[in-house]
Design goal:
Elements lengths: L5 E5 L5 E12 L2 E8 L6 E7 L5 E5 L3 H14 L18
Antiparallel strand pairs: 1-2, 2-3, 3-4, 4-5
């Protein structure tokens, strides 16, 4: 059985949330992390940036066009692995 990779993030209120790392996708030479909270089914996309100290940091993708391009790349890469709700046939939710 494959071990799940997790990461703990702090929100703007200092509340910790543990996420499963679903994977990394590269679009136009930029890496993005696709994460899902352990207690939710809403996936999130973060850009992997480098701060002034050379450390990797996750940045929220705020541009709708950038978000949609990354979402489509992720779905194309993992289209056989994406779970669909049997009742609605909707794709996994992203935010």
């Amino acid at each position: 059985m494959e071990e799940m990779e997790t990461i703990t993030l702090l929100d703007e209120n200092g509340i910790e949330t543990e996420f499963e790392v679903l994977g990394i996708v590269t679009v136009e030479d930029i890496d993005y992390a696709v994460l899902i909270p352990l207690d939710d089914d809403q996936a999130y996309i973060f850009r992997i940036d480098t701060d002034e100290n050379g450390e990797e940091v996750l940045s929220e993708v705020e541009d709708d066009e950038e978000f949609n391009i990354v979402k489509e790349a992720w779905e194309a890469l993992y289209e056989d692995d994406i779970d669909y709700d049997a009742d609605t046939d909707d794709e996994e939710d992203f935010e």
